[in-house]
Write a structure and sequence with these properties.
The protein is globular. It is α/β, with parallel strands linked by helices. The protein starts with a strand and ends with a strand. The longest helix is centred in the C-terminal third of the chain and has 17 residues. Helix content is 28%, strand content 20%. Strands 1-8-2-3-7-4-6-5-9-10-11 form an eleven-stranded mixed β-sheet, sandwiched between helices. Strands 12-15-13-14 form a four-stranded parallel β-sheet, with helices on both faces.
Length: 354
């Protein structure tokens, strides 16, 4: 299959391009679409065969559900058995935008979308291209990130092409994604509601809208052997580069670790933040300074990980960002990317025994 890449204006999508993408989707094809979070691999969410193609292209485990994208609250209501008042409040506050809500599914949703679970994850994206396509299609779109399963999420069309060239019919290239991190996921099918995945919308923002939402992130709770995962983004190993990634505590001496790896003849990468002083030069070392603000860091994180992968490194070190709420989603993604090599309470690198 030849994958076609079509440039499209991110703010004023060309109607003919949107119609071409809608036609591909209507016949069961796959279209990569830009959203404000990451690029998504879209198919007709109501057609099981089309959604199966998503799983095949990504190499995605069948028990990992996918998010269903809708144009608005009314469209979402048609896909669930019950629509609580909390859902309306969240939609009014954050839709369209980077918030996914989990609710009991209706019979319209095929089993493959929800991994045969009783709930469905729903989002209304804000990106003008995604919205134009949703309005052009008489069906919702299943659209997980447009990458191979568990690898780095794509924030540019070139990232998608590297992973999925020849596996999808069409890529709509609208340039870099605005947020660069996947959506926040809130489970409204539980009482009280809980956050399943951190994202651009933080807990404090959510608490201003639904005061009883709680935090239930367990980074290592879900593996590919688990039978029930309520939403995407729950796998312990996720968002990972091909290069072995180690997290280093920024508040403790770390240069010795990097120096030893370089002295051993390894090609080493380092992503660091928050230091104004220049780092010592080292043979075989590629250094990239990350933005000091969480918002800007999130925008470029996946792109920088893709770039580091392209250098053919033996190991990549990343300084752990602060523990404040604004860095929560970034810490979550980095922890999952380095799940076998996370720092323990003392700052020592420990190998996870899962």
């Amino acid at each position: 299959m030849q994958t076609v890449v079509l440039p499209i204006d991110p703010d004023h999508p060309d109607r003919l391009v949107i119609e071409q993408a809608a036609e591909v989707l209507s016949r069961g094809g796959l279209v990569v679409i830009p959203t404000e979070t990451v690029y998504g691999l879209a198919a007709n969410a109501l057609q099981a065969e089309a959604v199966q193609r998503i799983f095949t292209a990504k190499g995605r485990p069948s028990q990992n559900p996918v998010i269903v994208h809708v144009v608005d609250e009314m469209a979402a209501q048609s896909l669930v058995r019950a629509w609580p008042e909390r859902a309306t409040r969240l939609c009014q506050a954050f839709w369209p935008g980077p918030l996914t809500i989990v609710l009991p599914r209706s019979e319209l949703i095929p089993d493959i979308v929800t991994a045969s679970g009783s709930t469905v994850a729903l989002r209304s994206p804000a990106h003008p291209v995604a919205r134009a396509l949703l309005m052009a299609c008489p069906f919702p779109l299943a659209a997980p990130s447009a990458n191979r399963s568990s690898s780095i999420s794509p924030t540019k069309a070139e990232h998608v092409l590297k992973d999925l060239n020849g596996l999808v019919e069409l890529i709509l290239d609208a340039g870099p994604c605005a947020h660069g991190l996947e959506s926040t996921v809130v489970d409204l099918a539980k009482e009280p509601p809980c956050i399943l995945r951190p994202g651009p919308i933080g807990p404090e923002e959510l608490l201003r809208v639904i005061t009883d939402v709680r935090w239930e992130i367990r980074p290592h709770a879900a593996t590919e052997k688990d039978a029930s995962i309520r939403s995407p983004g729950q796998l312990s190993r996720h968002y990972a580069p091909k290069t072995e990634l180690h997290l280093l505590p920024a508040d403790q001496p770390f240069w010795k670790t990097i120096h030893q790896a370089c002295e051993a003849g390894q090609r080493v990468g380092l992503l660091y933040w928050g230091m104004d002083e220049p780092l010592p030069s080292q043979p075989n070392l590629i250094i990239d300074r990350m933005p000091a603000s969480a918002k800007e860091y999130g925008k470029v994180m996946y792109d920088r990980l893709h770039a580091m992968d392209a250098h053919g490194l033996n190991v990549l070190f990343v300084l752990v960002p602060p523990k404040s709420e604004e860095w929560l989603a970034i810490r979550d993604r980095l922890t999952r990317a380095a799940v076998a090599n996370e720092p323990d309470a003392t700052g020592t690198l420990q190998r996870n025994q899962e």
